[in-house]
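2 proteins. here.
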Amino acid sequence: MSSNHILLSVQAIHASGYLRILLCVCVSVCVCLCVMWQVLRVIGPHVTPSLVPTLLTLLPHVITCTACANAAVRQAAARCMSALAAAWLTDVMPPLLTALLPRLNDLTDAEKRLGAVEVVSQLTVDVGGRLAPYVVLLVVPLLRRMSDSNPDVRAGAARCFGALVGLVPLAQVSLSVVVCVCVCVCVCVCVCMRSSCVDWLSKQ
């Protein structure tokens, strides 16, 4: 074996070693983030009101993690945000929506859209009917995401939309908004039925 072959073999061994180290570091970072958001999810709802402003300074970091490529980190951040919103609704929802709505409409990054949909989905579970005042701000972006190019975003948006539409009568909104939402639902149903029919006919 020539010296060049030996050198290349040594370099390959070193490279594989570096890759293993890098992989371990990435896994460790993801685990640390999941644990950190889980701790905040448990402790955050029980802090004294005087510490809520300090708690709000952590929201941008949690929101950033909702767009992580790692699904476990995304879901941990979504659960954390939802738990904080359930405990401190009027304090958390304004900055959360300010960050969430642009992510729902971001056509350049599927991870951001998916993370935003996962946060809304968790909110519908943890916050429930108290989410009614914010429904009008969420239904239209979710309606757009129901035709998203990413299948996970589409499925998540459809589930969220179905959960939020039921809260529309609880929201103090004008009749025109309710009618608009009902028309949107009808249009979605018609589009879905048309797509199903087209798919069925194409298979015949």
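next one coming up
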Amino acid sequence: MLFSNRHEDVYIYATPFRCDGRRALRWRARSVGAGKPQAASRRRTRCRVDYLRRGKCVSMAKTASHHIDRAQRLSGVYAIVGESCSNVLDVAYAALEAGVRVVQYRRKAGIDLDEIRTLRTATRDRDALLLLNDDWQAAHELDCDGVHLGPGDGGFDAPSFVRAAWPDGILGLSCGSVREALTLHRESIDYIGVGPVYPTQTKDDAGSAIGISGLLEIAAAAKLPVCAIGGISLENIAAVRSSGVAMAAVISALASATDPRVAAHELVRLWEQSSV
């Protein structure tokens, strides 16, 4: 639609568009003879908008690719190091040298910045994942690959919020029953920690052992990669592997070993040689 105001030599364009189901008019004015400059300006604006959109798409694609790359490394022996270790770095190095590619740093009393920075360098040099326990914001700020959350931790009941705030981070949640597994927000979670599979003294509130049968029931209900945890040792890691779960978390099997390097190599060997 075109309207002309002959006294001021200005043309007024009314461009119809719909808004909330109602018809409205969007007005645009330009003076006679200004067509080419304004057309060029509009072209520049369109180019700028297209550039920004392409940039956003590329950024989102890189984030998605980074997340997929991290998630694909969630397999095998999963070493948990922290207050249970007499020397955190020695145990972590032993695990990494044996071929462990997932390390969780757990310090309930507080993070040792020197330790976690050293772990970050060591895991990155070996193309391994570094996860932090309990605190997803600290994990993000400290450049970890992800976080593991349990009941009572911030974000445990709102994994979609954590995922939105940290799109490329690995997010693992503790899960202790079929009922919990059925209520998980699967789209936001990368894996679940299930256990205790066997009796354990490492965690006072771990609850009763669920055994391999309980592990399989929860894994089937969750339909997510599973990290078995609780009492896993050289004597039973082959049985855990045979259950078909993606990972087996070990704490005392490394931390209490006379020689963590020997124990780590043996755990990895048993895992890799056991059939699913």
